[in-house]
Automatic annotation (TrEMBL):
<keyword id="KW-0963">Cytoplasm</keyword>
<keyword id="KW-0057">Aromatic amino acid biosynthesis</keyword>
<keyword id="KW-0827">Tyrosine biosynthesis</keyword>
<feature type="domain" description="Prephenate/arogenate dehydrogenase">
    <location>
        <begin position="99"/>
        <end position="361"/>
    </location>
</feature>
<dbReference type="Pfam" id="PF20463">
    <property type="entry name" value="PDH_C"/>
</dbReference>
<keyword id="KW-0560">Oxidoreductase</keyword>
<dbReference type="InterPro" id="IPR011277">
    <property type="entry name" value="CM_T"/>
</dbReference>
<dbReference type="GO" id="GO:0070403">
    <property type="term" value="F:NAD+ binding"/>
</dbReference>
<dbReference type="GO" id="GO:0004106">
    <property type="term" value="F:chorismate mutase activity"/>
</dbReference>
<dbReference type="InterPro" id="IPR050812">
    <property type="entry name" value="Preph/Arog_dehydrog"/>
</dbReference>
<dbReference type="InterPro" id="IPR036263">
    <property type="entry name" value="Chorismate_II_sf"/>
</dbReference>
<dbReference type="Pfam" id="PF02153">
    <property type="entry name" value="PDH_N"/>
</dbReference>
<dbReference type="Pfam" id="PF01817">
    <property type="entry name" value="CM_2"/>
</dbReference>
<dbReference type="GO" id="GO:0005737">
    <property type="term" value="C:cytoplasm"/>
</dbReference>
<dbReference type="GO" id="GO:0006571">
    <property type="term" value="P:tyrosine biosynthetic process"/>
</dbReference>
<feature type="domain" description="Chorismate mutase">
    <location>
        <begin position="1"/>
        <end position="90"/>
    </location>
</feature>
<dbReference type="InterPro" id="IPR008927">
    <property type="entry name" value="6-PGluconate_DH-like_C_sf"/>
</dbReference>
Amino acid sequence: MVAELSRLRDQIDDVDKQMVSLLARRLELVAEVGEVKSQHGLPIYAPDREAAMLASRRQEAQSQGVPPDLIEDVLRRTMRESYSSENDSGFKCLNPDLRQIVVIGGKGQLGGLFARLFALSGYQVTVLDKDDWEHADALLADAGMVVVSVPIDVTEAVISKLTQLPDDCLLVDLTSVKSGPLQAMLAAHSGPVVGLHPMFGPDVASLAKQVIVYCDGRHPEAYQWLLEQFRIWGAGLNRISAIEHDEGMTLIQALRHFTSFVYGVHLAEENPNLDQLTALSSPIYRLELAMVGRLFAQDAGLYADIIMSSPQNLAMIKRFYQRFGEAIDLLEQHDKATFVDAFAQVENWFGDYAPRFLQESQGLLRQANDATHRSAT
């Protein structure tokens, strides 16, 4: 039995080595594709091509007795690496006549990411950080675009200093709050203005499939090239008004981060054995715990600024607190019928999104479980 098992494992190892060689060859081809896309200004992410390829591979897998979900998982992970490697080829510059781009806060993580992407696209990029303001006038005098990427609590103050930009200079910000900064840019600068909110963190390996929200400010014809440059980087664009954006971020960011913060505080006060807690965790709880822990591995000041950036955030959190209390009343009264009725109402509100989210979450849980290492006992 031992000899037979060893022989089969040796064959599996040989197949695995072939898979590694094939993946290496695929990445080589991807690098060549990246060169072609860079030359011709094509986006690194082509959703139609990806969907057609996955559908074809799934069909081929099924015909050979391979689970279609397996080949899709392998290919999606491979493509994620491919999109990242395509960054090395650089990107076509869509506005080669643009004067220098000045990134205020370019030594920070998000500002640094955009500075690198602009440089990869062939633009002349200069960083203006908090220690460089004595040279600000000289740096900004010939700017073709100024990107403001500073902490939320100082964004409007920094923008208010930008009153001497060239008339044709494009002024943008990368802040997660839009109404205040957009109005500040319009007040400080008479030229083209657009508000941006990258819906991702600075640790992304690629902008493929990421989303950048933009809020029109002034002279939209002057920044269409910038939006198209984002598309070439692989990002999707979502146009929205500043007010609608901030209303959405109250739920997407402020409330979510606040509830994670409170849950983390609660855990720390209860002080469970974290090793034991993770050992006992189901995949879904471990994933939820990871998302809470992720918050506390990052900049506390950033999340404080996000949560405290708007009075409407506090109002939303208070309404959530009220509903939390109402839910506790159901528990105290042991009112299962009302609980079930409320559950059904929320299920109806989600509609078709509920089964869609169930399917999406099952994929996430499989990945989380695959990454878990448990010792045999």
